[in-house]
Amino acid sequence: MASRKNTKKTSINIWSKLPKPYFILAPMDDVTDTVFRRIVGECAAPDIFFTEFVNVDGLQSPGRERLLNRLQFTSVEQPLIAQVWGKDPERYYQTAKELADGTFAEESSGLMDVNYAGIDINMGCPDKAVVKNGCCVALVNDRPLAQEIIQATKEGAAGRLPVSVKTRLGFNEVDYSWPEFLLGQDIAALTMHGRTRKQMSKVPADWSAIGKVRELRDRLNADTSIIGNGDVMSYQQGIELAAKHQLDGIMIGRGIFHDPYVFAKNSPWRETVALKRLELYRKHVQLFAETWGENGRNVRVLNKFCKVYINDFGGAKNLREQLMNAKNTTELSRLLEEAIDYTATQSKIA
Ligand SMILES: Cc1cc2nc3c(=O)[nH]c(=O)nc-3n(C[C@H](O)[C@H](O)[C@H](O)COP(=O)(O)O)c2cc1C
C-alpha cells in the first residue's frame, strides 16, 4: 500500500513526555469504543486513551473493513494508543507501518491531521481461545515469538510511534523473568496488570508485585515507563498507589463502571441526581446511534453501561429492566426520553 501523508508528525514519546503519574483509561473490548471514550472525555478525561484490542491478522486480511470500527476515533479522544494483538510478526510490521503513516487514521476515521500516539501490544488477554492459539498472554511461554513481534512492530512504527506492551505478572504464577525479558526489549512503556493468567480476575491485584517490576526497571536502568493496573476505583487511590510503588502511571478499567468521573480529582458522581444520570445515558445512546447506526454495533453492547448510569435512585431497577430489553436505539431513546420527562416533572413538584 502506498505511504500516506498524515500531516501529524508523531515522533514524540508520549510515555516519557506527560507529567507523572499519568492516568489511563484501560482498553476494554466492546466498552472503550470511540463513543464511550468521548463520554468519559466529557466527564473527566484521562491523560491517555486506548482503543479496544484489534487483531493484526484480521487487519491484514480481506476482513479488514469490518475491524476498522475498533480503530475509529475523533480528535477529542487524545492522546490515543492503538492496541493490537495477533500471531504473525509480518502482519504486526505491516499494521504498525500503517498506524504510523496515518493509513489507519484515514481509513477508520477519515482523519488526516491527527494520528494515534502509540502502539500497544496485548500480551495479557487470558481468553481461552486466544491462549490456545498462542496469542496474548500465551506469549509469556514463547519469548522468541514475543521478541519477534515487538521487533517487527518497532520496525513498522519506524520511530514515528512509541511501542509499548500490556501484560500480566506471569502465566500460572508470578514470574519476574517475564517483565525482565520485556524490559530488555527497549519498549516505551510496560503496563502490568497485577495478576497471572491463571488468576484471571478472581483474586485482588498484587500491587507489591507491580512495585517489584518497577524496582526491576530501575535496576536494569531500562528507559521504560511502568504503569500499574488492577482494581483501582478512584483517582485518589491511583495517586496513592503510584506514590507507594513509584510508578509512572495508573491504568483504570472497570472502575469506570462505578463512576464515569473516575479520572476526576473530586468526582461528583455520588451526588449526581437521577435526572443528570438519565441525561448522560441519553447522550451516550444518541452518540452510539449517530456513530454506529442501527445496523452497526449491536444495541445489546449498551446493556453493559445501563447499570453505570441507571443506578442509585428510586425506580432504577425497574427502568433498567425495560431499557435492557429495548430492541434498538430508537426504542432506547424513547424510553429514556419518557424517564427524563417524568423525573423532571417530579423534581419540579418536589
Ligand atoms: C469487558 C473487558 C474487556 C477488556 N478488553 C481488553 C482489551 O481489549 N485489551 C486489554 O489489554 N485488556 C482488556 N481488558 C482488561 C483491562 O484492560 C484491565 O487490564 C483489567 O480489567 C484490570 O483492570 P481493572 O481492575 O482496572 O478493570 C478487558 C477487561 C474487561 C473487563
Can you walk through the features of this model?
The protein folds into two domains: 14-258, TIM Barrel, CATH 3.20.20; 272-349, Non-ribosomal Peptide Synthetase Peptidyl Carrier Protein, Chain A (Orthogonal Bundle). Helices cover 44% and strands 12% of the residues. It starts with 13 loop residues before the first helix and ends with a helix. Helix 11 links the parallel strand 7 and strand 8 (249-252). It has an eight-stranded parallel sheet with strand order 1-8-7-6-5-4-3-2. Helix 5 packs parallel to helix 8 and helix 15 packs antiparallel against helix 16 (329-349). The chain contains 16 helices and eight strands. With 350 residues, the protein is α/β, with parallel strands linked by helices. Flavin mononucleotide binds at residues 26-29, 31, 52-53, 83, 122, 124-125, 166, 193, 229-232, 252-255.
Radius of gyration: 21 Å
Number of helices: 16
Ligand types: flavin mononucleotide
Tell me the fraction of residues in β-strands, as a range. Answer: 5-15%
Mean pLDDT level: 95
CATH homologous superfamily placement of the largest domain: Aldolase class I
User: Structural class of the secondary elements?
Assistant: alpha/beta
Lateral arrangement of strands in the main beta sheet: 1-8-7-6-5-4-3-2
Element-by-element helix/strand order:
HEHEHHEHHEHHEHEHEHEHHHHH
Poorly predicted ranges (pLDDT <50, ≥5 residues)? Answer: none
